[in-house]
Amino acid sequence: MLIVISPAKRLDWDARDVAMTEPEFLEDANRLARTMRNLTLGDLRGLMDLSDDLARLNRDRFRAFAEAPEADMLRPAALCFAGDTYQGLQAGSFTKAQMGQAQERLRILSGLYGVLRPLDGIQPYRLEMGSRLHTRRGQSLYDYWRDQPAKALKRQAGAIGTQTLVNCASQEYFGAVDEKRLGLDVLTPVFLEDDGKTAKTISFFAKRARGTMARWLITSGVTEPEGITGFDLDGYRHDAERSAPGKPAFTRPRQAGA
Asked: What Gene Ontology cellular component terms go with this record (predicted)?
C-alpha cells in the first residue's frame, strides 16, 4: 500500500546525519518560492491568517529560499515536520530498514513541494495547501498543482505493485489529489472518540492517530488492504459498525479532558 500524510506547520530544524534525496517537483517549488518572495507582510498575513511575527518569519524564509541550496540548508521532510501527525509517525525512531520502507511507501503532500518522500531535502517554509495564492496557473494552490500529485502517486503506486492508497492526510491536503486521475482504491481511516453515548472525531487526536497509522503500516509489514483492520494502537480498535466503504473506522474510549 502507498500512504499519504499532510505536512506540519511547526518545524524541527535540528541537523540530521541522513542522506537526503531530491524532491520530484523541485522546479515547481522554486517557481512558487519566487512568487512568495514578492508578497508583502500584509499579503502573507492575509494569505494564511498569520500573526505579524509569523508573517515576518515566513517572509524571511522565502527571501532566503535558494533554488540550488547547499546541503546544510536542507532537512529530510519526515524528520523536520513536527506537528501532531509526526508525533504519531515518530520517523526519527525508524530503523534503517524501516526508513527504507517509508521512502518507498510513504508520501507527504505539500503546498510548496507537491509530493515529498520522507528523505527528500526541503528548505524551511510554510505554505498551506488551501491558500488562495494567485499564480499563472490559477487562483489557488489546487489550481497550481492540478493533476500532478495524482499522476505522481499513481505512478509511484505502480512502482511498488499496489492498487491501494491509504489516505492519512487532512481533507485540505488530499483535496489536491484528483481521485479520477489517481485511479487507485482509496482507504481513508476515521478515528473516533467514544464517550459511551456518541463517537466523534476530535482533530487533535485524529491527527496523531493518522501518523500512528502510517507508522504501523510501515513497520507491521501489512501490505493488503484488509490488513488495515488489524490496527490496534493507542486504544483504538476497528469498529465494523461505524465503518463505511473506503472509510474503515477505529474507535476508542474518550480520553480524559477531551
From this structure: cytosol
